[in-house]
């Protein structure tokens, strides 16, 4: 039997059946969530690539829920642990950023400030072009993903380059202290092209100058000033007309 609707102020309300809620929680207890730019890769292609990477033993479905968020529906703990602990996963040249799923999961409240960025270590001495040294350097900025092929092969020595998953909401340094036996030194770094990032919203997708929230705030502040300026002008015009 369905529950009888009620009212909360001017809006209708409904009490969710306890047993139905428990079934929903139990069915989704192995879920994960992730972020992926579906403008760069269609969801059907992302599904195929993910299944090929993970090779799950049970059911595995990827369902987009908005704001670049995707729910990964799983039916067993082994597959969930394998996917969660097996990062980093790269799908369609994108880093699949995994998120824990929990009840009341809301993609609107999941800000995405992470991006894959090529980091250059300028003028790095050739004795430091070892894979583990370069990955350690990159780890000071985020999660290292891979070293540029030209850097591995040492095709040129101007800089070494590593792909790093960086949180753009964090302060990004211009140099790193390298502690080396025989003498520490500062190592300069330079970031390659980055995605649009808003320092106000702390999310990827638009810049501060393009931020709708900032523009709406400015409009709210400026509107009263504009009205105050119009009032004296209107009174002056009214006074002149009255004299005539």
From TrEMBL:
This is DUF4283 domain-containing protein. Residues 39-108 form the DUF4283 domain. It comes from Kingdonia uniflora. InterPro entries: At4g02000-like, DUF4283.
């Amino acid at each position: 039997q369905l529950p009888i609707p009620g009212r909360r102020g001017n809006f209708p309300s409904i009490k969710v059946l306890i047993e139905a809620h428990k079934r929903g929680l139990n069915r989704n207890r192995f879920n994960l969530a992730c972020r992926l730019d579906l403008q760069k890769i269609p969801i059907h292609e992302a599904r195929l690539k993910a299944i090929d990477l993970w090779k799950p033993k049970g059911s595995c479905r990827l369902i987009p829920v908005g704001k670049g968020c995707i729910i990964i529906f799983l039916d067993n703990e082994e597959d969930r642990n394998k996917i969660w602990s097996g990062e980093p996963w790269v799908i369609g040249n994108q880093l699949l950023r995994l998120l824990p799923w929990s009840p009341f999961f809301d993609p609107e409240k999941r800000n995405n400030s992470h991006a894959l960025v090529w980091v250059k270590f300028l003028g790095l001495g050739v004795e430091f072009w070892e894979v583990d040294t370069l990955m350690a350097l990159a780890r000071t900025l985020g999660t290292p993903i891979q070293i540029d092929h030209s850097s591995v092969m040492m095709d040129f020595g101007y800089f070494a380059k590593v792909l790093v998953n960086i949180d753009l909401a964090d302060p990004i340094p211009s140099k790193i202290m390298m502690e080396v036996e025989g003498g520490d030194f500062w190592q300069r770094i330079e970031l390659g092209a980055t995605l649009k990032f808003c320092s106000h919203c702390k999310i990827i997708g638009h810049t501060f100058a393009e931020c709708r929230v900032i523009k709406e705030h400015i409009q709210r502040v400026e509107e009263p000033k504009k009205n105050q300026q119009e009032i004296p002008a209107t009174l002056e015009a009214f006074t002149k007309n009255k004299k005539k």
